[in-house]
Amino acid sequence: MSANEKQVVSITFKTEQQKREALDQIAQDMDRDRSYILNEAINNYLELYHWQVRQIEKGIEAAEAGNFATDDEIQSAIAKWTQ
Q: In degrees rounded to 5, what are phi and psi of residue 68?
């Protein structure tokens, strides 16, 4: 297999009938098959998950470096949301 080829494997899992019907409706609306919709959902989940992990790691690094908001910065942010 070349570096550009992706190995495709099957996966099976159980879900509620209502969810399967909703997926099938989305697939029909998009003129795609269920596998395409599920792969898009998995890709979106993985992207979000990895983004969250990176943000948490950045937050931990900032905290370990002592980079915290000042009291004035916190009060300013609160004031923006409570006005």
A: -115, 155
Report the chain (83 residues): mean pLDDT per 10 consecutive residues.
82 96 97 96 98 97 91 92 84
Residue 42 lies in a domain: yes
How far, CA to CA in Å, does 24 sit from each of 10, 16, 36, 40, 48? 18, 13, 11, 14, 23
Pair of tokens at residue 47: 């992207």
Residue 31 lies in a domain: yes
Beta-carbon contacts of 33 under 8 Å, excluding residues fewer than 6 positions away, are 27
> What total of structural domains would you count in the chain?
1
Domain housing 69:
17-82
Residue 23 lies in a domain: yes
52 domain-assigned: yes
The whole-number pLDDT of residue 1 equals 62
